[in-house]
Write a sequence for this structure.
């Protein structure tokens, strides 16, 4: 947030993805209204807003999680670069989308399998069988998730024996193992204590060197700490989007300012 | 002061009712438990003397002291194998389909209601169905195969319902985790839902089998014989192809039929045989339930989400 002088012109930044006029419906109920939002490459974009504003719904559009449930419908586009594919297109297989993007959920949800198998699972369903490759990739992912030193001697132990914060870092390692093009975080620290939260935030900060990140958070301080860009949503609308420090210190809309300053929300 | 007194009286009245209900509950429990224990002890006192090695290795006989349950327990065992071979794949597949694949519509709702209803259909009705379908239409006769298929139909709803409940206990978050990594539905089921719901499924299967092993009406209906002096041919042979399916077509008897046939004899000695055989059957059932509990405990240890 103190890197104000270095802030480059938005037009010069590469976009990793962009939502264009995105509408989303649960049955007849419209949950997102014409959201247009760029996701800049190798940057962290935070989605903030009060409960029920549609931030998680928006995030779950990216990897087509809504396809798993009946009665949901998308309109508009989410374009993923560099191949400019519309992730929401009917011709695009949601499985392919989920293989290119990865997601970390609100509550740590490791599989009740070994630590190794958790991280290797994504590679296994991509057909990787070579033990040495699996071993290398698992090690790298665990290192990237800052978990390797804690678990390197117990890779065969059940993932559910780890602490909550470790479990969430394991889920991040599981997501990283397949080299995702875009990493989606859905309130990743809401079930964690402050110390575990701090370690996850630090991790997100480091990860942006490697991968583009989109994070939903209900915690405004968290958005301020980890993100380059912030989007404020309210009742399915995108109210304001910009550099995080602009949104927090120089909000353009009265509504955003009220939320940021805690007068509302 | 008077307010506190009144309050205490009210609490005391409420507590007396509490005690009364606990007493009633314990009485009900004791009644059920004592009845079972009394029956069990009665069986032991009548039949224990007959329980020796010969009892398990002798065929039925006209002379009570020489009669054994060899044909009955082997028959029950063979029938249970057939029952499990048919009921488990069918029931588990149906359960998975209904829980993971079937669209939520009226048709599915109708099927679900009917499966639950099937669990309540009297077993004699299954016997009649089997008599018409397997024995007469398909010409399978009163064989091990017919009995196995009949009992498989009988426990199919139990297996389906148990499978569905076990599958439903797998948290949605685990499913979403697998899907988000790019798993197909079948990969998700095969790698996650099935292994994690296995304790529940196995428990359901064993509970179903322990019900099937005691069923008498359907196998009497299809025409199982009560006196038989040979065993079905063994399923493994010394010659190529080493497996032999003739045992499926063999006539058979089963534990409940043997017990029924002995109890209908007037001689005291046969009553003792019936008690001994009933004791064996009860112990078999209890053992199966014990295995179910043990399996559930063993396999669940790893599943704490």
């Amino acid at each position: 947030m103190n890197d104000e002088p270095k802030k480059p012109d938005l037009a010069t930044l590469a976009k990793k993805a962009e939502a264009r006029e995105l509408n989303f419906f649960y049955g007849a109920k419209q949950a997102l209204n014409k959201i247009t939002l760029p996701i800049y490459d190798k940057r962290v974009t935070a989605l903030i807003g009060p409960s029920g504003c549609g931030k998680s719904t928006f995030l779950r559009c990216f990897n087509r999680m809504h396809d798993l449930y009946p009665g949901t419908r998308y309109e508009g586009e989410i374009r993923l670069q560099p191949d400019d594919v519309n992730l929401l297109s009917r011709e695009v297989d949601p499985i392919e989308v989920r293989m290119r993007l990865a997601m970390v959920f609100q509550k740590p949800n490791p599989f009740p399998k070994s630590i190794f198998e958790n991280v290797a699972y994504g590679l296994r369903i991509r057909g990787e069988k070579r033990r040495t490759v699996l071993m290398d990739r698992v090690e790298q992912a665990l290192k990237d998730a800052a978990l390797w030193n804690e678990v390197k001697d117990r890779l065969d132990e059940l993932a559910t024996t780890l602490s909550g914060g470790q479990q969430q870092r394991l889920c991040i390692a599981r997501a990283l193992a397949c080299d995702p093009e875009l990493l989606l975080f859905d309130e990743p620290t809401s079930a964690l204590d402050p110390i575990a939260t701090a370690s996850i935030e630090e991790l997100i900060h480091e990860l942006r060197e490697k991968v583009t990140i989109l994070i939903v958070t209900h915690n405004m301080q968290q958005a301020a700490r980890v993100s380059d860009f912030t989007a404020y949503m309210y009742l399915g609308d995108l109210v304001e989007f910009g550099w995080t420090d602009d949104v927090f210190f120089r909000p353009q809309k009265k509504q955003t300012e009220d939320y940021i300053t805690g007068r509302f929300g | 002061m008077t307010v506190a007194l009144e309050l205490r009286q009210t609490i005391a009245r409420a507590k007396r009712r509490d005690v009364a209900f606990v007493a009633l509950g314990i009485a009900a429990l004791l009644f059920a438990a004592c009845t079972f224990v009394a029956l069990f002890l009665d069986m032991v006192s009548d039949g224990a003397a007959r329980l020796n090695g010969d009892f398990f290795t002798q065929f039925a006989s006209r002379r009570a002291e020489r009669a054994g349950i060899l044909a009955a327990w082997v028959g029950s065992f063979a029938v249970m194998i057939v029952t499990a071979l048919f009921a488990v794949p069918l029931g588990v597949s149906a359960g998975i389909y209904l829980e993971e694949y079937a669209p939520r519509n009226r048709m599915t709702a109708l099927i679900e209601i009917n499966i639950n209803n099937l669990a309540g259909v009297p077993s004699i009705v299954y016997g009649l169905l089997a008599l018409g379908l397997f024995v007469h239409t398909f010409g399978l006769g009163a064989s091990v195969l017919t009995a196995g298929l009949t009992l498989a139909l009988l426990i199919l709803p139990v297996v389906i319902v148990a499978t569905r409940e076990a599958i439903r206990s797998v948290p949605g978050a685990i499913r979403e985790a697998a899907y988000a990594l790019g798993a197909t539905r079948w990969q998700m089921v095969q790698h996650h839902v099935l292994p994690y719901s296995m304790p529940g499924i196995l428990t359901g299967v064993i509970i179903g089998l322990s019900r099937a092993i005691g069923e008498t009406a359907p196998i009497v209906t299809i025409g199982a014989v009560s006196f038989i002096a040979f065993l079905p041919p063994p399923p493994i042979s010394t010659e190529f192809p080493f497996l032999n399916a003739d045992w499926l077509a063999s006539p058979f008897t089963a534990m409940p039929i043997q017990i029924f046939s002995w109890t209908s004899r007037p001689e005291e000695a046969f009553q003792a045989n019936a008690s001994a055989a009933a004791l064996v059957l009860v112990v078999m059932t209890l053992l199966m339930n014990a295995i179910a509990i043990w399996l559930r405990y063993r396999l669940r240890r790893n599943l704490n989400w």
Remarks:
- Residues 51-302 of chain B form a domain with the MetI-like fold fold (CATH 1.10.3720.10).
- Chain B touches chain A at residues 103-104, 171, 173-174, 176-184, 187, 191-192, 196, 302-305 (CB under 8 Å).
- DSSP finds twelve helices and no strands in chain B.
